[in-house]
Amino acid sequence: QVQLVESGGGLVQAGGSLRLSCEASxxxxxxxxxxxxRQVPGKQRELVASxxxxxxxxxxxxxxxxxxxxxxxxxxxxxxxxxxLNPEDTGVYYCNFRQLLxxxxxxxxxxxxxxxx
Length: 117
Prior knowledge:
The protein is mostly beta strands. Helix content is 0%, strand content 57%. The protein has no helices and 11 strands. The strands form 2 sheets. Strands 2, 4, 5, 6, 9, 10 and 11 form a 7-stranded mixed sheet that branches. A hairpin with a 4-residue loop joins strand 5 and strand 6. The relative contact order is 0.33. The model has no long low-confidence stretch (mean pLDDT 96).
């Protein structure tokens, strides 16, 4: 089992920045991926960014150049630095941990990000 605790959401004006953090605890095995997803009402949860235990990263096109995902393997944390936020970035952001070999995945409780115009 893996437990995920998120922090850092909030309200920000367009053009501003926020930083999300997620700490994982429990049975952390590699290889794995730590990711941030977001969801808005009426839409499917979408992958925003992932960072793998290898260090590689991937981003959805809409956040490339604005968001940066980074992890600290020693602390089992993943951060999402979000810059140049716009109202389309509004949503509930969820931290996700996925064990790549077994396929088990775990979710955080979600943190609200609201970007005002």
